[in-house]
Amino acid sequence: MNLVAGQVKRRYDVTGRREAADANRRAILEAAGELFTARGYAATMMNDIAERAGVALDTVYTAVGRKPALFLELVESALSGTDRAVPARERGYVQAIRAEPDAGRKLEIYARAIGDIHGRLAPLLRVAQTATHPEVREVWQDIAHRRAANMRELAQNLVDTGQVRPGLDVEEIADVVWATNSPELYCLLVEDRGWPAERFTAWLADTWRRLLLA
């Protein structure tokens, strides 16, 4: 084999291994999500996840990690809408909000994004609500704290438009949005009260406009 052919083969081998690893990871996360939501966190064993995914148990640990890491990855995937964690500032809807000059339109964009995110996140909330393991509560609390920090950025972005109600400051706006964009509220209205997701999205945008904008 000449040098060029060897380089091509090595690149092919690396690409093939990476694609196989990505496929295994996706299968593991899909299996974990199905089992967590069907059985609950405590009743789902790592061996069960490996069997459902069609991989060896060692592959589960290598590709994702222990059970708390699996749950965290599922939450991150639900937030990003991909099979990977994506920082908030790099998500498409965040960039669209920042580029939009009108405060009402910013809130509409965010409400649509929240509807999509919580449609994916709601089953995991049910898992977290019934789990007694501290690592699950820690994951959920960390996500809540991150949401609060992100809401301060959104609130400042709204204030900068000059279109918010007089007397509202960044902290109050952030807290109001943080409370009303929670997955718990989505589950109460959409899952428990039977609202269509589209109705929830429209109501959320309208509520924010009424509460926050002049």
TrEMBL record:
> Which ranges of the sequence are annotated as binding DNA?
45-64
Question: Does the entry feature the keyword DNA-binding, yes or no?
Answer: yes
Keywords assigned by UniProt, alphabetized: DNA-binding, Transcription, Transcription regulation
Q: What is this protein called?
A: TetR/AcrR family transcriptional regulator
Q: Kindly list the residue ranges recorded as spanning the membrane.
A: none
**HTH tetR-type domain boundaries:** 22-82
Task: List, alphabetically, the PANTHER family matched.
Answer: HTH-TYPE TRANSCRIPTIONAL REGULATOR BETI, HTH-TYPE TRANSCRIPTIONAL REGULATOR RUTR
Keyword Transcription regulation found: yes
